[in-house]
Structure formats: structure tokens, C-alpha cells
């Protein structure tokens, strides 16, 4: 049992949910790695959109095929040994696979754009296209975990929960919208937050809202999101940037008092890089008073 106390809302994951989370997180991490590999490969070899061809389609397919192999390895680890790569790909993965179709659609769109632009294609045109294709690689790799869960459950494995379904996502979204819009009494807040998270623990926006509104003084939101495979460091950094800007706009009088405020705010939201922001406000004060 894994337990997290999110400002009074106790979130618990039993073994079945933990097993599901482990599978999901594993394919999310692989998808991110594959996406970066695809992007780097394209940027190293492509200078304009005319060069995006079947070579890059094949490279993306190979990355996704490795995710499928990873899926088979996961299935076998649950003692399901009657599903091999070909069977898994044909029976379980195809319905979640979109990379080939989306890649070809992008190529068709580019072909039409080239005709309209008289083939005047510049370097910067290619980067958004590569970013889009990289996202498609991530999506296909990540969605293999759906196929893994389908295979496990269909073959009688009971040690793992299924993935979050659309009904649970809609319920979580409705509860969250009502909670953040103030339609739910704060008296019931902890129970509602618990239900929002347990219905769909993977909605990043929920944790960002909770940090901004209630802080993360004990770092439990960080602990939970790291367990789930969600990175909030960039969001916490943006909150620190906004806070420092507000201090600057109001004028920095006593620099030591300002640094202490920054330190306290960092502790309130659970930002572990407070020294970075204290150094920044020190530098701003020095510059403005030079």
C-alpha cells in the first residue's frame, strides 16, 4: 500500500493500482525517450521538409516496435507466455497505433503547402513538423500500455488494475471543475480532492491548482507526482518567477526581507531550489542599485 497525504486528503494505492502505475510509468518514460531519439535523429539529418521521407517513417516505426517488444516482456513477466511479438502486435496494439497514418498525413499536408509556396521552404519550417512527428512517436509508444493491460486482463491476470476509463476521467474532470470554481464547500474539500485524484490520478492540472491554492509545504504532492511519473518542477519554477516579478513590481526595499519572503514562498510551494531564486533576487537588487 502506498499512501500520500495531500493537505489532508489521503490518497492510497493498493497493490493492483501500484502494478498498473508501474506499467503506465514505464511506457511513459520509454515514450519520452523514443520521442527525443526521433527528434534528435531528424534534426541531425534534415534541413527542410522536402527531406522528410520513408527513412524517417521507418525510424519511428522501429522505435515503436521496441515498445511493442517491451510490452511482450511485461506480459511474460505476469506468466502469460502464449503471446509473442506478432500476436501482441496484431491482436492488441493495432487499434492504438496511429503513427503511420499521421506521418503520411503530415507528408500530404507538406506536399500541398509546397505547391502553394512554390517550394520556397526554409530551415525553420521543419522544426514544428519534427516536433509534431516526435509527439506521434511518443503517443504510439505510450499507448502500448493500454494494449498490455488489455492482454493481461483478457488472459485472467487479476494482480493489476485496468487503465483509467473515460467515465472515470469525466467524473474526475467534473468534480475538479466544480471544486476550483468554488461550487463545493471547503468543508468537504478533502473528500472531494481525494475523489478527484483517485478517479484520475494522472491529470497534471489538478496538482498545479492544489500547489497554487494550498501549497506543498511537506512535499507530499511532489512525492505523489514523482510516483505517478509527473514532473512539476517547471510549474513550481514558473510560480517562483511570478512571485519574484511581483516583488520587483512592488519595489525591493529591504533586500534581506525580500530574500526571506522568497525563501518562505519556496518552502510553501515545496520548491527545493530556493537558493537559485534567492541568488536571482540578490542579483536584481544589486543591478538596480548599482
Assign an overall shape. globular
Low-confidence parts lasting 5 or more residues at pLDDT below 50? none
Order of helices and strands: EEHHHHHHHHHHHH
Helix percent band: over 70%
Distance between the termini: 56 Å
Class based on secondary structure composition and strand pairing: mainly alpha
Give structural notes.
The protein is mainly alpha-helical. Strands 1-2 form a two-stranded antiparallel ribbon. The termini are far apart. Helix 10 runs antiparallel to helix 11. A hairpin with a 2-residue loop joins strand 1 and strand 2.
Chain-wise SSE layout:
Blueprint: E1 2-6, E2 9-13, H1 15-45, H2 54-77, H3 85-93, H4 99-116, H5 123-154, H6 166-180, H7 189-199, H8 204-214, H9 220-228, H10 233-250, H11 255-269, H12 274-288
Antiparallel strand pairs: 1-2
Helix pairs in contact: 1-2, 1-5, 2-3, 2-5, 4-5, 6-7, 10-11, 11-12
